[in-house]
Every structure is written in C-alpha cells, then in structure tokens.
Amino acid sequence: MTPPPYRIESDRLVIRCYEPRDAPLLKAAVDESIEHLLPWMPWARFEPQTVEEKVQLIRSFRGQFDLDQNYIYAVFDREETKQVGGSGLHPRANPGSLEIGYWIRAGEVGRGLATELTAVLTRVGFELCALDRVDIQVEPTNSRSLAIPRKLGFTQEAVLRRRLEAAAGEPRRDSVVFTMLREELAGSPCTAYDYAAYDAAGTELASRTVA
User: Fold this and answer.
1) Helix (H, G, I), strand (E, B), or coil: what is residue 118?
2) CATH architecture of 7-192
3) What's the whole-model pTM score?
C-alpha cells in the first residue's frame, strides 16, 4: 500500500493532515457540534476541550500520520478558514484495506459534504494507495451515515454485533459494515467527484477529473 496523501482538494473541500495551528478551528467545529456528535461519536463525551488540549490532540494525529499508523484528516472549506468536519483512512482490517470514518459539523449537515468527502477518499484509496478494499462502519440507527455508502455504491456485507466502541457504562454498539472492492470503483458514483492530491512537501501527486 502507498501511504495516503497529506492534502486533498475537491470541489468544495480541503481534506488535509492536521497542523497545530488548526486547534482553534477544530475546537470551534466540535464545540458547535457536541450534541450532534454525542449519539454517534464516543469521543464527544470528553468535550469540550481547551485549545491547549486540542493542540496536543492534533500533535498525536500528526504523529500517527507521519509514522504511517493512522491517517486522520481535518476537513475545511476551500478557503481553510472554517473546519466543516473530520475524517480519516484507518487501518482497522487486513493489509490492502483502509476504513473511512467521517463526521460533519452540525451547521454543515445536509449539504452533501460527507458524500463528497467519502467519494473522494474512496477514489484516493484505490487510485493512489493501491488498496484492494475500502470499508465503512456505521451504527444501525444512524440513518444519515447509512445513506452515504449506499448512495456511493458500497455493498452492505454484514451487521456485526457489539463491535463499535461504547459510551461509558453502555454495551458496545452494533456495526453495519459496507465494502467496495477495487474493481467496483469504475462503475460507482464515486467517480463523479474530482480531486487533486499532494504530498507533505506540497508536490502534486495526482489530479483526477470525473471519470
């Protein structure tokens, strides 16, 4: 597998590795969205955090990215003045696969940003990282998140019982697993989303238009 790019640009989004200077933007996005995130994101129960705590969190994200351990992205508007969500390509299964995770700022829900983000990361996974499979896990009651892989042509493989992290004092949550294989990308709606990708030095790695 080739490591994912540090920066990806799509029609409406900049998807890139975190930098410490992003801490105030991350805090603003999360603080606005705590109630929106609490039902689905176990980490939201530890919010709100200070800017200093966000700096330390971002340093850990960046360290994992640089060491090819986990690829956590901030998601900004094209001007990079507002964080509209977060995402990542996570090595949670066998070699040759990465899992896409995503969350969208409360005030940005309903604009199709999660669909654009997921489609672009799926293309990047297959076209630049040489993956064999891209996975998505969603809680069964999260209807908005369930709609995204279905819309993009992923196959629902299974419902795995008590696989997702639980909130304090509660049982682990069930997981609906969606998968796309390399050969399925070409016929999927993901190819309707353009992107350009760059390495850590800012060198363009690829520019993909609508297939």
Assistant:
1) helix
2) 3-Layer(aba) Sandwich (3.40)
3) 0.96
